[in-house]
Amino acid sequence: MKCPYCGDEESKVIDSRPTEDGERIRRRRECLRCRKRFTTYEVVETLPLMVIKKDNSREAFDRQKLLNGMLRSCEKRPVSYQTLEKAVSNIEQTLLNSYDREVSSVRIGELTMQELKKIDEVAYVRFASVYRQFADVESFFTELRKLMDDRKG
């Protein structure tokens, strides 16, 4: 690690500890040449997760975009922000654990519906109606029947 004061590349780690969010490691270092101390942060390097959309275009996975969609589905429902944050983290972790750097938007939609189904059935139906683009009332009722059958089973 290059010293910010003298530019020397030799330093020693004096102290290491995780940051409050647990996402990085904070390291206190001392330059072996000038003896000044400085702080560095170590972060896990990840490759971006790319989403293949229905029109075959690609864009980087956007956690906030997913969270916003779920928030719209849960509007005026008794679902906390923390619950949705956890659901988004579960979805993101599932996608990262697959080791595929490209994932279809269909897969993300299916995972989102699974999470919403566990959280709030009304939010699930709202999301499904937009995601699956229900063309008519019959397709809406078909989805509701599936939900009712799952409840009974």
UniProtKB/TrEMBL annotation:
* Cofactor: record remark: Binds 1 zinc ion.
Cofactor(s) recorded for this entry are: Zn(2+)
Which keywords, in A-to-Z order, does the entry hold?
A: ATP-binding, DNA-binding, Metal-binding, Nucleotide-binding, Repressor, Transcription, Transcription regulation, Zinc, Zinc-finger
Report the GO molecular function annotations.
ATP binding; DNA binding; zinc ion binding
Q: Which Pfam families match?
A: ATP-cone, Zn_ribbon_NrdR
The record, for InterPro entries, names:
ATP-cone_dom, NrdR-like_N, RNR_NrdR-like
Could you say which residue ranges form the zinc fingers (unnamed)? Answer: 3-34
Q: Which residues form the ATP-cone domain?
A: 49-139
Tell me, which GO biological process terms does this entry list?
A: negative regulation of DNA-templated transcription
Q: Which residues form the signal peptide?
A: none
Family the entry assigns? Belongs to the NrdR family.
The UniProt entry, under HAMAP family, shows: NrdR (MF_00440)
Q: What does this protein do?
A: Negatively regulates transcription of bacterial ribonucleotide reductase nrd genes and operons by binding to NrdR-boxes.
What's the name of the protein? Answer: Transcriptional repressor NrdR
Organism for this UniProt entry: Faecalibacterium gallinarum
